[in-house]
Design a protein that fits this description.
Strand content: under 5%
Low-confidence stretches: none
Largest sheet: none
Shape: elongated
Structural class: mainly alpha
Number of helices: 2
Number of strands: 0
Radius of gyration: 25 Å
Number of domains: 2
Mean pLDDT: 90
């Protein structure tokens, strides 16, 4: 079982970690609403393009497999 001194030492590390995380999060340059909407649109468009590409390649492979 952990002694109170060991537990306190561990708690200090956890608190320090979260304090440092909070400090780093304050440094982040968060996107504004317009940028966020633009980036979301780009991601959705890219997702659709990749999905269509994979679907076409899959259809081609299936068609070739039927010929064999």
């Amino acid at each position: 079982m952990a002694t109170p001194a060991t537990k306190a030492k561990g708690d200090g590390k956890v608190r320090k970690y979260f304090r440092e995380v909070r400090a780093e999060m304050r440094k982040v340059n968060w996107p504004n609403r317009k940028e966020l909407i633009t980036y979301t649109g780009v991601v959705l468009f890219a997702t659709v393009v990749v999905a269509l590409f994979i679907a076409v390649v899959d259809l081609i492979i299936v068609a070739l497999a039927r010929l064999v």
